């Protein structure tokens, strides 16, 4: 399996890691984890818990774009080393994004979002050049 595909697996797991973290916030802030109505309970969170839930939702959204970018680069036969670098940079940017989101560092979060999106665009450009 190529490095970008491994990075895709990591990106798939990121929302689940954030969901697990969110359950911790729900337990601490609300006294329990309601698995029957987790989304409604998550909407009751405040502060870092609410931001963790928002980071999870954003991770799902970013996953769609990254999946398309990695798939395009892979199918087009884009340069392996450059594709790997772009995919690894995306993962780094998304980890920074999640941490910045939870810790309420909005400017860093915005910068990480732009960096991650730039990595996706780079993968599409690599696909276009290869195809």
Produce the secondary structure layout.
Blueprint: H1 3-30, H2 38-42, H3 47-76, H4 80-102, H5 106-130
Helix pairs in contact: 1-3, 1-4, 3-4, 3-5, 4-5
Provide structural commentary.
The chain has 131 residues and is mostly helical. It has a single domain (3-130), classed as Membrane associated eicosanoid/glutathione metabolism-like domain (Four Helix Bundle (Hemerythrin (Met), subunit A)). Helices cover 85% and strands 0% of the residues. It is built from 5 helices and no strands.
What is the first-to-last residue Cα distance?
21 Å
Tell me the CATH architecture: Up-down Bundle
Mean pLDDT, nearest integer?
A: 97
**CATH top-level class:** Mainly Alpha
Short recap of the structure:
The chain is mainly alpha-helical and 131 residues long. It is built from five helices and no strands.
Task: Describe the structure using short key phrases.
mainly alpha, Four Helix Bundle (Hemerythrin (Met), subunit A)
